[in-house]
Each structure stands twice: as structure tokens, then as C-alpha cells.
Amino acid sequence: MIKIALIGSGNVAQHLISAFNESTETQIVQVFSRSPFTFDNISVVHDLNELAEADLYIIAVSDDAISDISEQLPFQNRLVVHTSGSVPIEVLSSKNRKGVFYPLQTFTKNKKVDFKSIPICLESESKSDMDLLQKVAGSISDQTFEISSEQRKSLHVSAVFVNNFVNHLYKIGNDICSENEVPFDILKPLIRETADKILTLSPNEAQTGPAKRNDSQTIQRHLDFLSDDNQKNIYKLLTQSIQNGKDL
Amino acid sequence: MIKIALIGSGNVAQHLISAFNESTETQIVQVFSRSPFTFDNISVVHDLNELAEADLYIIAVSDDAISDISEQLPFQNRLVVHTSGSVPIEVLSSKNRKGVFYPLQTFTKNKKVDFKSIPICLESESKSDMDLLQKVAGSISDQTFEISSEQRKSLHVSAVFVNNFVNHLYKIGNDICSENEVPFDILKPLIRETADKILTLSPNEAQTGPAKRNDSQTIQRHLDFLSDDNQKNIYKLLTQSIQNGKDL
Rounded CA gap, B175 and B177, in Å? Predict the structure, then answer.
């Protein structure tokens, strides 16, 4: 049994606790939480000095707090990882062995996810630490990847485009529907199919629409239709970007 | 049996033929195609003057050709509809009864879709024609909606945002991954979950990320990371738009 101590009790921490709880190869020996927190039979401490011994310490707190927390750990030479997509491995204190354990997914409170299909991006400073991280990640997910801090940065930026920005385009679609008293539900099968297409086609092959077809009449009609300047600007910029046909 | 003649043999036409072919309430009596085309046991003509009598004529051709084709039809007072999201009902010739039969989905050649879950937006000039369109649409889909030309226009613009533009953001994510030698596959579960979230949460509730959190440090790191001006501009504009929190 690999012993894990989890530092943090937020969204990502809770999803990790649930996942590890179902694994037969790992055991959460303790959770550190600043705020009151309970989870089934897991021991919770509120003082870092009370942390039990473990094979792996996973810091799952907000990006800004990672460095401080890692400095405050009252031990040395143990394996300490963070779970952030956007923070380099170096922010961790050098008194312990550093690593990264980044599950690339959007976690919603109270919505259970199937961890098996969530890619986990791993980084470490030694082969033996990587072996341990592979074992731990492999106990909850079928997809584990060794990814450098630089590569992870690019993944995180990409994730902003395909998740945060995509969701914002959903919002704009929703806004346009509301203004025109059309149920947004009509668009949901399209949203689903747009995402599904990418599983089998490259985004380039999957691209359709007036910008791709250079259908300037339809583009102009759409621009005339949009009364909001922000929506207009986004429409123009993304249309141009599709027409230029390259973002490299 | 409701008799349907299909005018056109492109992507949308083919998907409609397949769907109607499986329905027990409708029958495709004929397909008109300019180019050589065969489909199982369906009669195909290449001259509009040879079109058989039908209860409904569905024009599934490119937007620009709808008006011409409807003018060239060699009969009067029959029900003629087009399948376009962006063309008003008025472009159809007035010598026949007009209507719209717009399946709101992205159709990929050779990829079968489950028509049952595709919303079909209907428009007509009379209640009796609407009744017929509802019957026809209901024979292949569980989701039929009566939608005016003005509402349809707003739906079509929304669809550009949630389909064409979303797919383009996938492409940018793919480009960033390629440049950094990270497999784009790592992002696919996230893409899937981002779309799935919208089925249960509003886009507003589902929004996460540095822009939403006003995490200016991460935003600056991402902008520094992006070397392509086009990607930078899109990142800035969409971040601003999320931060303004309103697109209405």
C-alpha cells in the first residue's frame, strides 16, 4: 500500500480523495485542511506539524499558496508534489523531493467524474520518484503522461482555449438565444456533436461554416445581426483567424 | 404515407434521405440531383421538369441556389421548403406554398448521425402546412420546434459561435500542443467534459479559469508564453469578454 497525505480540501483535493479511496494500491493516511473538513474514515489535521509519515505528499491548494505550504512542511527529503497545471515544479521548496501530479480535467463540485479517463501529467526529479508517481497515478487513471514543466505550461494554455474560452462561446450562444427568445436547448445536440467530432477528426478537418467557406454574404448578415460590439469583435476576430487558416 | 421529393444530393440531402428511408410514415418518391447520384431503390431525376407529384418538396442545396431552384419548379401551390439555417423563408418563389425544414446539426460525410436527437426547426405560412411539417419532422426526430425566420437567424449566428468558433479554438489548442510536442489527445477528455457540463449547468455557472478568477498573474504568464500574435489577440479578447461578465 502506498501511503498518501493530501494537503488541501478544495475541489481537486476532494475528487482525488474519492478516487484514491476506491483504489486498492493506495491509501490516504491523512488530509490537511485549514477549514473544518470531514471525509468518511479519513484522519484530518489542521496543523502541518501534525502530518503523518507518508510515501507521497500531494499539495492540492490554490496556485498562489503552493510555495508557502511547501516551505512550511516540517520534514525533509520526502516526495512532495503539487497538482497545478500552470505552476512550474521549481516553486516547491527544495528541502523535499519535488514533483507534479496534474490531473487535466475540469472538476465541478458535487459532480462525480470517472477518474479512469482523466489524463494525469507527471513530473519528477528522479526515475525512482517517477516510478512511484506512475504507480500512484496508474491506480486511479488509465492515462498517465510524463510531461515537463514547459510542456505542462503549453497544455495549460491550450486548456484555457479548449475549456474556458469554449465555455465562454457557449455563453455567448446562450445570450444570443435568450435575446431572441429561442431555447438554448436547441443548440445542445450541436454542442455535443462538435466535441465528439474531434475524437475522430482533426480540428482542421472538422472545420465548417461561413468563415471556412469564405461565404462573405452570410458573414456580413451575421455581423449586421449582432448588435453587441463585444460579440461583433469576437465574431470578426475568429472569422479572420479561420480564414487565415493558420495559427502557427 | 407522406410523399416527399428531395431536391439536392449533398451532405444534408443524403442524411435526410437515410433518415426518411427508415421512417414508416414518409416515403421519398424521388430525388433530384444535378450530378450522377444513386441511392438504393430511390428514383433519381436530373431534370426538374421530371419531378413526380409529392406532398412535400424539400430543397436541400447550397444557400445561394435555393431561390433559383424554387423559381424553376414546374408546378404551383405545392408545399416547398428549404433546409437552411441562414436563409429567410421569403427567398422561396411565391408560386408555391413556402416553408422551412432546418435540421440544426453539423453533418459530416460518411458519419452516421442519430436523427432522433437532432432538433428540426420548422416554419410555414399556414397551420395546415405546419401540421404536415410537424408530422414529417416528427417521423425522424424527437425534437421539433416552430421557429420564425428571425429566430432562426439568431439560432444560426449562435450555432456559428458554439460550433464553428468552438472548433477553431480546438484547432488553436491543437496548434499549441503540436508546437510543444505534447499529444493533443491529452486534452480530449477535457473537451468532452466541457461540452457535457453544459447539459446540466448554464454556461455562466460552468465558467472557470484565470479570466473568471481575475488571476492576472496566470493571464500574464499565458500571454508571455504565446508567441503568435493572432493567438495572443484571441486570448486577450476572450479574457476581457469573460471579465466583463456580460455579452448582452
Answer: 5
